[in-house]
Each structure stands twice: as structure tokens, then as C-alpha cells.
Design brief:
The protein is of the alpha+beta class. It has a single domain, classed as Alpha-Beta Plaits (2-Layer Sandwich). 28% of the residues lie in helices and 36% in strands. The chain contains 2 helices and 4 strands; from the N terminus they run βαββαβ. A 4-stranded antiparallel sheet has the order 2-3-1-4, covered by helices on one side. A hairpin with a 4-residue loop joins β2 and β3. The longest helix is centred in the middle third of the chain and has 13 residues. The protein starts with 17 loop residues before the first strand and ends with a strand. The relative contact order is 0.25. This is SPOR domain-containing protein. InterPro entries: SPOR-like_dom (IPR007730), SPOR-like_sf (IPR036680). It comes from Desulfobotulus pelophilus.
Length: 94
Amino acid sequence: MEVRALASDKKGVPDLKKGRFSVQVGAFSQKENADRLARDLTNQGHRADVMTHDRGDAVFFRVRVHGFTDLAEARRAEDRFRKGGYPGAMVVAE
């Protein structure tokens, strides 16, 4: 397990608006569908990949766009994806 230090202000309070964020654009039960979306997003210039999530009773393939270091930036990207046809897009802290 990776442990990272959080950015903090002068009083030592963590700044939760800075860090590593991604936008989950889709989740699929079939890997081929996730791979297709990740390829399309990559061809559009995004840093997209597929992450496998085993829920115990089912396996899902999550497509995430990476590279955001500021929560506001990730939220703007989330909004663009939602307006671009991915209504379930959501920001995820990495």
C-alpha cells in the first residue's frame, strides 16, 4: 500500500483540494467495452486507462482519466465529460 503525504497549510491542516485526482468516465462488466472507451479517450488526447475492480460478486472495469493535481481542475473535467455524453462521470481521489 502506497502512503503519501498530503499537502498542508501553515497550521498543518491537510489541503484536500490538492493531490492526485482522476475522473471515472465509465464502468463496465465487459472488459472489451472498457478497453474501447479508454482507447477512444486516449485518441482524444486524454491519459485514460482501465482499472479492474473485484466487488466480490462481480468484476467491473473502470475507465479513468488521470493527471489532475487540483480538485477544481478535476471537477471542471468531470463537468466537460458529463456535458460530452458521460452523465455518470465522477472525480476520484487517487
